[in-house]
Automatic annotation (TrEMBL):
Keyword Transport listed: yes
The UniProt record lists the keyword Transmembrane: yes
Compartments where found: Cell membrane
Transmembrane region(s): 31-51, 57-81, 102-122, 142-163, 170-192, 204-227, 247-276, 296-319, 331-358, 378-399, 406-424, 430-450
Gene Ontology CC terms: plasma membrane
Domain of life: Bacteria
Assigned keywords, A-Z: Antiport, Cell membrane, Ion transport, Membrane, Transmembrane, Transmembrane helix, Transport
A single GO molecular function term of this UniProt record: xenobiotic transmembrane transporter activity
Record GO biological process: monoatomic ion transport
Protein name as it appears in the record: Multidrug-efflux transporter
Amino acid sequence: MLKKFTNTKTTFNPNQELGLKQIWNLTFPQILMTIFHFGIGFTDVVVAGRISPDVQAVIGIVTQCQFVLIVIATALANASVASISQAIGARLNLRAIRYTGLSLGLGLVFCLLVLPVAIIFQQTFLNLLHVSDQLMPTTKNFWQIYLLALPAHYLLVLSNAVFRAYKAVYLPLITTFIVFLINAFLDLGFGLGWFGLPAFGANAIAWASLISVFAGAVFNFVMLIKLQLFKSESIASWRWNKAALPYLIKVAIPSAGMQLLWQIGYLVLIGITNALPKNSETAMAGMTAGMRVESMLFMPALAFNLTGAVLIGNCLGAGKKLEAKRVGLKILGLGCGTMSSFAAILWFFVPTIAAFVAPDPAVMQECMNYLKFNILSTPFTVASMILTGLLSGAGATIYPFYANSFSIWCVRLPLAYIMGHIIWKNASGVFFAMLISQMVQSSLCLYIFLFKNWTRFAQRGGNKTT
């Protein structure tokens, strides 16, 4: 059974048209993976809510900070999927193996650069978020523990990307399940005192994250070696790395820029929410709880994003540009249809879900408000996520960079301040701005996919990086 799940001997047949069945078979395990990924954050929020609304607010703040810290790992992961999947499509297996080694090596280097900066400037960073004096001690403690997990987090992100590029999609599923189980046990056991264990409160949530991520990273590293995806041939000569590095960087830099501006934009949005004229802490706690539930809706859409990146890379590696576009439209239609239908059902359960994740009545109302705006945005958010993945698989990350950055910095943030602080003067103004920005972003991405020459960013097979 394990051999079946860890099979990496996947080949791409350029003469076979990819249908909905093949797309779904690759996507479904990744949907399960995203459900467990959602469960990790959901457990943190639920346990934090049982401790206090303040701890719940801290979880939201530190989680966004954590996303900023791993932005380089995410960018390298996107570049790795593009380069490896294109190499597999071109049937250049040695190139794929070497890109694996190069990606992991770059991840280690950048992690060692990011870590000391995050340690030195931690207070400055938290001050920029307008963290209140009441929340500051707990926030700093969480931040410091999360920093300890950063190297393992980098390895986890990059190794999962390698497995996906080889279509070994069950491996990230198994890894995420392991992380989920360990995190849930430690959260509930040492956070709330379940299973007859001592309750340590908020600190247990942070340490649970550290231990579970480390366990997942170790498992992935062992599997990389066992499956010979990381071996002596992965460490290429300086000459090869010098020739291959420009493409990896060309794809990674716009992706990193997009992720960085997107995540910083979210931090600014948190700052806008924290500085609302009234009930700012309640709004922040409700937004934090709502973001976790929202991820239940949008995390499966990420599976279509990931599938699209791999299949587009395969098609372009084989020189099949028209097939790449057809496959992309199939994934877009399947993903938007599936997730919008689920969102329509979820709408009727918003009060029940909000009451579960936010027991405090005031926080529950803000959580309901947040969820309703975001459920309305489902078709637009899902379309943006899938189209971003399709363009990323082609190496055309510069296009999502433009579209996503414009939507958040020129639409979402100015509108959030105007509606939240000047016109409506409450959290609804912030949530309304999020809806409008998603409509703008999805429209831009769709225009790019339909009318721009994004296939030109793919590598050519058989060049000097073979």
